[in-house]
Amino acid sequence: MAAFDFVALDAHGKQRKGTVEGDSARQVRSNLREKGMTPLTVEETSKKGIKGKSGDENGGRSAGSRYKVKSLDLAVITRQMATLIQAGLPVEEALRAIARQCEKPKTQSMMIAIRAKVLEGFSLARSLESYPRSFPQLFRATVAAGEQSWHLELVLDQLADYTESSHETSRKVQGALIYPVVLVMFSILIVVGLLHFVMPKMVSVLEGSGQELPGLTQALIGLSDFIGSYGLVVFFLLVLCVWGFNQALKKPPIRLVWDRWLLALPLLGRFIRLVNCSRVANTLSILASSGVPLVDAMSIASQVTTNVPIGNAVRTATTAVREGASLNRALDQSGFFPPLMIQMIASGESSGELDTMLSRAAVAQERELDNMITTIIGLFEPLMLVFMGVIVLTIVLAIMMPVFKMSELAG
């Protein structure tokens, strides 16, 4: 039984899309007609999927392979798969149960297509290759190791823990970055509103007095006039600059220079190192404990980093380990990884418990990252309050200084 992607019209003439199982395209069309639907196109999913390492006529990728499931949904799917397989269900039955539980049509179609590949004789890891964006290389390599060792249920359980932990870490990192951005944008909107709407009304009163305005007041009046005249132009120029900068970062030499500069920053650089070191430690831990060779695990770990110099350092360390160097020395030479992590890895290599020490190093990195996120948020809140207080105080002084001067002259 294979999976088929279909496009059909329902009884109300509305177009419907989805993925269903069937023995042939003719049977799928017949089933659709029995449900009161008019099939437009029915195409076997496997013809658009992978057909070996050499690929197929369409390059081995379907349009569905570009679909990316959210990290939270991936964590849920992994946990469900681990639970069902531990309960004794065959892989294809577990995939069918998960597909029925999916609320999103695209995710459900993806799980049905993966089950169809398994029914065709492909391994689960091989079937997941049809959706590389939803199931990254780390995920597929771990599943493949579990299938080869006949301990897929245990490996999936570990992978579920890792996926949930990775989602929680990503959520914390995004929260730590979004919160300052929201505060800064809100502060800018308040300042622009005061300068554009409040300041001009006060200026008309102050200028009517005939007195010379203080320098601070004149400066804010000039800034208010500039915002009123060129505010939209400046906004669109900033948007254009941000777009151009993002396009420039897609070029490897520019991205390398930018990432190096970020690492050199006092607080942000340490935060970026912690995030990437935590990802590397977690990846090595889950892959090594699943039976993936260390060199292969390091090659995959180099791809989960978001910073180019750190990724290059892991790739260089991979080459050194392949040539016979120890893992702790290879990573220590880069200078990016903390001494505690290096010492724990060295202890694991000397004692023969590298898997355990990698897991402990990953936990230590996550704990340090959590502490740093808490510290950054705790420091940012009072700093933003002080910043807003200074801005508002400056505007108030610019308005009140001429008023006080007029009062003195009237007295």
How would you characterize this protein structure?
With 411 residues, this protein is mainly alpha-helical. Helix content is 72%, strand content 6%. The chain contains 15 helices and 3 strands. It has helices spanning 25-34, 71-86, 91-101, 105-119, 124-128, 137-149, 152-207, 215-249, 252-264, 266-289, 294-301, 308-322, 327-332, 339-351, 354-410; strands spanning 2-9, 15-22, 38-44. A 3-stranded antiparallel β-sheet has the order 2-1-3. β1 and β2 form a beta hairpin. The longest helix is centred in the C-terminal third of the chain and has 57 residues, at 354-410.
What is the N-to-C succession of helices and strands? EEHEHHHHHHHHHHHHHH
What gyration radius follows from the Cα positions, in whole Å? 29 Å
* Basic shape: flat
Instruction: State which percent range the strand residues make up.
Output: 5-15%
Placed side by side, the strands forming the largest sheet appear as 2-1-3
Mean pLDDT across all residues, rounded? 79
Q: What fraction, in percent, of the residue positions are helical? A: over 70%
Task: Supply the number of helical segments.
Answer: 15
Oligomer: single chain
> Describe the biggest sheet?
3 strands, antiparallel
Number of strands: 3
